[in-house]
């Protein structure tokens, strides 16, 4: 019996039970039957959750790109691996076959080696959604270099801190990028970022926008001539199962971004397995995930998951609103997309436009439609189900995180009956639990608690780059022996999970995970600002938006509050990126603080939401009178 594909509900429960009772046998069998290995493992899993130490497929040897590309060549060499759909529809799509992908990745891998990149070196990839991005990622994996993709919407200072944190040796970027009717000067941002990055020796520049850029002698080279000179053959590096594959930064509730480290074999096995089941993938399907490869969703479900299954995956450079609001639906129609995977924020923004945009196109190729990134509200779920899925495509509401590497809780389409706003059931191998405030596991159904995972899973992050203590502290200390997700959830009468949102100081804005602390740090650097507190509040399109409460220094300058508001947002934009801009800024004379000096964010959150009904226990506040002032001046 094979566990790779769940065929019906009965089988789901059977596989699930097996995966809990005998996780080693379950994952061992999946790993053995569906991948090519240079050498098998001594142990399927070895772990100590208390120490946050987890190893899967101990001592096995593998290369993930051999599994993504080489092994498909005999059977699927001419099959399209990647469809590149450019920002401008008139430019025409590009189809890259598995054979061609092999050649391009091999050449890129050879270029990286020639440029001195070795196994274990970190390479920062700061590229728009063009084929070079996929090829650079795979080329790193080919030679065992650790890729650190930084979303090309991040500002120079955000890039600087990510490069310095893991000491990248090389940056791969492009002259610029297209997004809707804008073009973005990516090389300029890299030049600025690199002023403070001593570890970077070389910069390779892909040509996308044909713009004049500054090329620094001895550091910068155009990528294309190097590729043209490279040979299209490459021997893959033999990697240990636990060798690092990539670092991906995610916001924390405090301090600097966390470089989540994912390793090779476990990530490979679970992204492939989850892709196959959550999207009901069958040969000749065309899969489209609209995320950017700069996020985990793109890593796992634009690149690795689909390619491991020999699928055709769409890389879309553009935005949902350009050249018009029919763009997503036009692409589905044009490429006969079978599975479509997007975010609630995109769904909401398109649902508010006329239904004619979607009705205009033939979406009959669709089989499964997915949602990820934040809780999907009931209205958006129904619009998606009715207008995009035409009530015949199961909606998979997939819950997971950068840290989990792959989808953890989600319906399996055509297997698990869906329920609007519910991520439903854990995948086989995943053991979620709800915990109460006393750190006890909550048994039974119709309960609410903090969502934890009590047994390791193959694709979990292994550490935070350079800071294992912080990894332990952030994820394994709140509930000893368990992984704490940072999310709250409820479990309904049949055991379905519904994710209710973050219980820490992270706010999800348009599906982007934003820590409030780094935004506050950026705001506090403005010369007029004494102190600030940021919270999220509900927003129709973005899910949440940011509300800032700001105390000004008494300098007498900055009388013009509108101007100041603008300046603060420009500051945030340049330090973190435009996504972190505040929708509302309220200047206050103080912030509600406890005797130990901690800001009581719970109260600020209620005020920002406009809910003045019950602030809970405020007896520990040092300055309770400030609550009324803030409330009365709410924007
Ligand atoms: C946080 C992780 C890997 C997904 C992309 C975001 C929220 C994610 C759902 C969902 C409700 C969701 C959680 C999670 N989230 N998917 N289907 N329903 N909430 O990855 O940036 O690491 O953010 O996104 O709060 O903890 P991320």
From TrEMBL:
<dbReference type="InterPro" id="IPR045851">
    <property type="entry name" value="AMP-bd_C_sf"/>
</dbReference>
<protein>
    <recommendedName>
        <fullName>Acetate--CoA ligase</fullName>
        <ecNumber>6.2.1.1</ecNumber>
    </recommendedName>
</protein>
<dbReference type="Pfam" id="PF16177">
    <property type="entry name" value="ACAS_N"/>
</dbReference>
<dbReference type="InterPro" id="IPR025110">
    <property type="entry name" value="AMP-bd_C"/>
</dbReference>
<dbReference type="GO" id="GO:0005524">
    <property type="term" value="F:ATP binding"/>
</dbReference>
<feature type="domain" description="AMP-binding enzyme C-terminal">
    <location>
        <begin position="519"/>
        <end position="598"/>
    </location>
</feature>
<dbReference type="InterPro" id="IPR042099">
    <property type="entry name" value="ANL_N_sf"/>
</dbReference>
<dbReference type="GO" id="GO:0016208">
    <property type="term" value="F:AMP binding"/>
</dbReference>
<dbReference type="InterPro" id="IPR011904">
    <property type="entry name" value="Ac_CoA_lig"/>
</dbReference>
<keyword id="KW-0067">ATP-binding</keyword>
<dbReference type="InterPro" id="IPR020845">
    <property type="entry name" value="AMP-binding_CS"/>
</dbReference>
<keyword id="KW-0547">Nucleotide-binding</keyword>
<feature type="domain" description="Acetyl-coenzyme A synthetase N-terminal">
    <location>
        <begin position="12"/>
        <end position="68"/>
    </location>
</feature>
<comment type="similarity">
    <text>Belongs to the ATP-dependent AMP-binding enzyme family.</text>
</comment>
<dbReference type="Pfam" id="PF13193">
    <property type="entry name" value="AMP-binding_C"/>
</dbReference>
<dbReference type="GO" id="GO:0019427">
    <property type="term" value="P:acetyl-CoA biosynthetic process from acetate"/>
</dbReference>
<dbReference type="Pfam" id="PF00501">
    <property type="entry name" value="AMP-binding"/>
</dbReference>
<keyword id="KW-0436">Ligase</keyword>
<keyword id="KW-0007">Acetylation</keyword>
<feature type="domain" description="AMP-dependent synthetase/ligase">
    <location>
        <begin position="70"/>
        <end position="462"/>
    </location>
</feature>
<dbReference type="InterPro" id="IPR000873">
    <property type="entry name" value="AMP-dep_synth/lig_dom"/>
</dbReference>
<dbReference type="InterPro" id="IPR032387">
    <property type="entry name" value="ACAS_N"/>
</dbReference>
<dbReference type="GO" id="GO:0003987">
    <property type="term" value="F:acetate-CoA ligase activity"/>
</dbReference>
